[in-house]
Description:
Blueprint: H1 2-59, E1 63-64, E2 70-78, H2 80-89, E3 93-94, H3 97-100, H4 102-111, E4 120-125, E5 134-135, H5 155-158, E6 163-166, E7 173-176, E8 182-188
Parallel strand pairs: 4-8
Antiparallel strand pairs: 1-2, 2-8, 3-8, 4-5, 4-6, 6-7
The structure holds calcium ion (2 copies).
Amino acid sequence: MGTDVRDETRNATSLLESNLMAAAKDLRNETRKATRTLERNLMAAVNEIYKRITALEQVLGWYRAGNYNLYKVFTERANYTESLENCEKYGARLAVDGIIDATILRDLIDNLINSTDYGTYVGLDDRAKEGTFMWLSGKPLIAGEVRWNSGEPNDDLGGGQDCAYIRAEAWNFDDHYCETKLNYICEKMA
Length: 190
Ligand SMILES: [Ca+2]
Ligand SMILES: [Ca+2]
């Protein structure tokens, strides 16, 4: 009698154990499946949001270039300091990365800048030290990084031209008086 009870208890326990193990395995599988589905749905939602944001940015006149940064040319002309400040209002800066990268610059000229017939400020100047052009990112200009117009930058032969811009139609670079009001291109980092 005592042996029967023990056997039954043992049997019941091992049945319970194997049921529990099976249930745990099912739960793991279900959890994995649910997680995968959740991940897929989240990715789809993020992609959809990204698409909508891009569409919205386009409506607002921002152009997403191949480096994923956003660019906009402002044509209500401003001097260099005003250009800097206006870009900052949009959480952006005068363009640097898209100007240094020749492929992106070509893209920006073709898609944004060439629709204007006026000079366009970029984030490059030698205001701190005459003759040493610095990008707004804090890096010094490396020789060959921008294609200057012939004879430029000339500082207007000592006349104090410290701010770089892209010349309309030639699409090469020149230094100009920072007080001159020009178009300007802002860059919002991805
Ligand atoms: Ca200068
Ligand atoms: Ca010049």
